Structure formats: C-alpha cells, structure tokens
Amino acid sequence: MRQLTALDAQFLSTESATTAAHVAGVAVLDAPVTRAQLIDLIRARLHLAPPLRMRLADVPFGLDRPYWVDDPSFDVADHVHESTVHGPDDLARHVGRLHARRLDRKRPLWEMHLIHGIGEDRVAVYSKVHHAAIDGVSGVELLAAFLDFSPEPRPVPAAPPAVPVQAPDPVDMLADAFRRGLRQPMASLRSLGRAFADLDAIPVIATLPGARQIARATRSFRGHRPVPDLPSLAAPRTPLNGTISSRRSFAYGSVALDDLKHIAGTFGMSVNDVVMTVCASALRAWLADRGRLPAQPLVAAVPVSVRTGRDGDSIGNQISAMITPLATDVADPKARLAAVRATMMAAKRRFAVSRTTWLHDLCSALPAPLAGLTPAVFRLTGLVTPGVNLIISNVPGPQSPLYLAGARLLAYYPMSVLTDVTGALSITCISYDGSLDFGIVACPTRVPDIWQMMAHIHDATTELTKLADAELR
User: Fold this and answer.
1) For residue 103, what are the domain limits?
2) Residues 366-377, mean pLDDT to the nearest whole number
3) Which residue among 89, 116, 280, 322 is least crowded, i.e. fewest CB within 10 A of its CB?
C-alpha cells in the first residue's frame, strides 16, 4: 500500500471543470493494429506497468491524501477504446476532444484509444495516464514496457506471484490522518523553511519585493553553497495567459534531430538549448503576427526529472522545474541563440547546486483537507498575474526504431497539461529515431490557430539551420 505524495495529490487537486491533469501522447503506427491485439499485449505485460492496474482509495472526508491500491474488478478491455476519423486533420480535432476529458477516478487512471482513418494504412494510438501516477520520464518508461525493438514481440517472463494491494481500513486511514494532522503544522513550517531558500526561483513569489534577499539570507543561514542569481522571472501578460476554458486543441509535427544537433554543434550549446530557442522564436513570431509581442521576455517552466531509479519509483512524480526567460524580446536570431544559451546555463547551474524540491515543499506545506482550494487559487492567480507564460518540456527518447504489436512506431507526439497558472499553451517534445516529435496543446479560446504555432516551429528550425550553415562558410 502506497500513499500519494503531496506533489502527486496536488495533480489531483489541480483538476477542475476547466483543467484535466493527465499526460498523454499520440503514437502513429505504419500498419493496422486491432483493439484485440492491444488488449492482449497489455494483459501480457501488465506486471511491467504497475500504475495501470491501480486505483485511488480515498480517505474519508478528504482528511488525508489518497492511497494507491489494486483494483479487484480491473479489466484491460474497459480502458481500451476504438474510433475512426477522417484524415490527419480530423485526428488532431479528435485527439483534442479526448484530451479535454477527465479520467474516471473510480477506476485505474488511464485510457487508450485506437484511432483508424488517418490514411496510408496507418493507425494512431492516443493514450493518457493521470499526472498523479506518472511524470514525463516515467511515462516514457511505462510506454516502453509495451514496445519492442523488432516486429517480433520479445519474450516477457510471466508475472511473478503477488499479493494484491488492498485498500486500508477506513478507520485506520482516519487514525493515520489524525496523527498526520497533529504533525502537519510542524511539517508545514519545515517545508516552508526549505522553500524559502528558493523564493527567487518560484513563479510569482520571485517577483515579490524582498524575495531575492530572503532567499539569499536563508541559504546563508543554512550554510548552502552560493548559487548564481537568476534573471527576472516576471512573466508578461500575453494572449496565452488568463483563465482557460475546458476545451483543448492539438497540433503536432516533427523536425530533424540532425538539424538541431548541427545548430548545437556550430554554436557550442546543447540540443535542449536549441529546442528552447526554436520555441522562443516560434512564440515571438506568433505574438508579433498579432501585434502582442511584449517588450520583456516570456517566462517558461521547464520540468526536470529528479528520478533516482530506486525500487518503488515506477508510480508517482519525481520532478522539479526550472523557471527561465525565453529571449522572445531579442530580434536577431543569432543573438537570441546566445541569450537563450546564457539564461539556460544560469538556470542549470542554479538547479545543480540548489535544492530541487521546492515544488514538493510547497505542496507539502498545504494540509490535505485544504487541497480542494487549489483550483480557486489557480483561477484567481490566472486572473491577476501569469505564473509563467507556458510549459516547455523536452524528453529524451530512443534513437532506434520501435514496434507496437508488430507495427513500426513512426512518431510519438507527447501532450501535457494546461492550467490557469501555467498558461493556455504547452509545448512538449520527445526525440525518437532521428526526429524531434512535437505535441502542442492549447486552449482554443486563447490560441485559436494552434497549427500556426507548429508552422512557426518549422520556420524557426529552418532559420537557425541556415544560420548555422552560414556560420560554417
């Protein structure tokens, strides 16, 4: 029996009528696959993916965080669905609708949708798992459990005998909740004390008067190593920010990984820095088209895995976040590359020597019975000031071809979460087999032309590739 961490539970609390807190992805396969094949595959390898068979056991009256337990009535077939669309454009619309729907908390928190009709004898598989159960890296690991390196499925040992994880007795849960409630005030003070050392790296809080001075004093008092100062993290208000609706739109596409490596090698930076520059360039172009480009740079939250690989890490979140400006205010593309490289380098140095748990610390400081206030707080914050302008996530993936139920995986377009605090747009990408596959999720009331953002990503990649070519001549 495992209780959700404060951070895991926060992803549950974040959900509202306008926010669905699951991570997802669209796999495009080069050959037809049947629903029966997918069901058989998942059943045979279910023991390799523990989050798929577990559901939530709530503590009475919401007095404590829920527990993960095995679902005694679990059937894979209840989670695998099938539909047909009318071409690639309709695929994006259909996936947007699926992504907007929240998962049923009475069952294990995942779904898979086999989608026909995308053309060329191909099929797509849209899958989603609640963010309370996985983060980006563990999501890739979970997906890998069902993939093979050849069309012939690899032999997988049968599941070892296991005792099902039962739901705790309600009286025991209440007793534990009471004991934890007694300790909560001191636990909250300890969590806030740890978070004070990173006040200058936390969205919104970092912009308050004195935040930087308090953070420095806290780090000095605790004997922490000196850390680099971060640039201003005040996110400007843009069309991407404010309250969002319950609707979601989706766009996808790929760029050549070799082009990004070429740019990175030419200008002496990492591929991830190039990805951030591409996104900054695309955002600058999109905002300029609308006459809404702010004078100061946009601010992005960049999720970072702090996963250790220890046993028991297969379910739940082990992430933090770097908050960084994006140099959208820099007009010259070469200067923009240099600016992104400098800000990312400062953020990475800060992240490497400072605490990586401020996200968890802030969640831990909030007593479980008050977690239900999160959507209202997020809504109010979104109305008053942007926390960040958007989330950008780049997940490393395999560079060898993979297969699902015998069909080759051509591309995988990852998808993330939108909230009132983090903005109406998220850009997620994963490297796979020579490409960087982008999945863009937006609230259509704020970003009505999401495909234009994908077009700007392609244009930005082309622009930077030509710049690298010219640099070498």
Assistant:
1) 2-151
2) 87
3) 89
160: in domain? no
* 131 counts as catalytic: yes
Catalytic, out of 22, 94, 113, 131: 131
Residue 138 sits in the same domain as residue 287 = no
Give the domain-ending residue among 135, 151, 167.
151
Instruction: Please give the average per-residue pLDDT across 442-447, as a whole number.
Output: 97
pLDDT at 311 over 60: no
Give this prediction's pTM: 0.94
